[in-house]
Amino acid sequence: MKKFLILSLMATFLFSCNGNAQKDSTKESSKSYEVTKSKEEWKAELTSQEYAVLREAATERPYSSDLLDIKEPGTFVCAACGNELYENEHKFESGTGWPSFDRAIEGGVAYGSDSKLGYQRDEVHCAKCGGHLGHVFNDGPRETTGKRHCINGVAMDFEPKK
């Protein structure tokens, strides 16, 4: 009986989290951004992997991004609209397999929340087109901001400093 009660409580918790995730994604999609396009327009402009991450909030495989190895000065921009997001000087090796930054360019990103995994996370979007970039966590470098912006490499392009 005790096992049944525990399983019932766990199932209730999981289903309630799924309901919140649906509400959060609906809420996010109702925001308006400077750059807006139809689903068909985004699909025509982005690769299938870019579309999955930027428009459907998918996550690329860890260690799959060429942007992990970039060391030269420059700026990471949104792969969908070219908006400036992060400076390479604020990138650090987190060991997670995704490009990580301790801060964004002011005004470059917007924040939301999602509970798709059953708990609340702070989601990072492009402030100009609303494209999903990744998430921000409180386990970044303590000597700077303490934040770790864990960003999908496929959601960005790199522009070297001229």
Could you characterize what this model shows?
- The protein contains three helices and nine strands; from the N terminus they run αααβββββββββ.
- The chain starts with a helix and ends with a strand.
- It has helices spanning 2-29, 39-45, 48-56, and strands at residues 74-78, 84-87, 91-92, 100-101, 109-114, 121-126, 132-137, 148-151, 156-160.
- A hairpin with a 7-residue loop joins strand 3 and strand 4 (100-101).
Condensed summary:
This protein has 162 residues and is an alpha+beta fold. Helices cover 27% and strands 25% of the residues.
Q: What labels would you give this structure?
A:
25% strand, single chain, 162 residues, three-stranded antiparallel β-sheet
Give the topology.
Layout: H1 2-29, H2 39-45, H3 48-56, E1 74-78, E2 84-87, E3 91-92, E4 100-101, E5 109-114, E6 121-126, E7 132-137, E8 148-151, E9 156-160
Antiparallel strand pairs: 1-2, 1-9, 3-4, 4-8, 5-6, 6-7, 7-8
Low-confidence stretches: 4-29
**Rg from Cα:** 17 Å
Overall pLDDT level: 85
Question: Could you describe the largest sheet, including whether it forms a barrel?
Answer: 6 strands, antiparallel
Oligomeric category: single chain
Strand content: 15-25%
Q: How many runs of DSSP E, i.e. beta strands? A: 9
Order of H and E elements:
HHHEEEEEEEEE
Report how far the terminal alpha carbons are from each other.
Answer: 68 Å
Q: Count of DSSP helices? A: 3
Strand order of the largest sheet: 3-4-8-7-6-5
Helix-strand category: alpha+beta
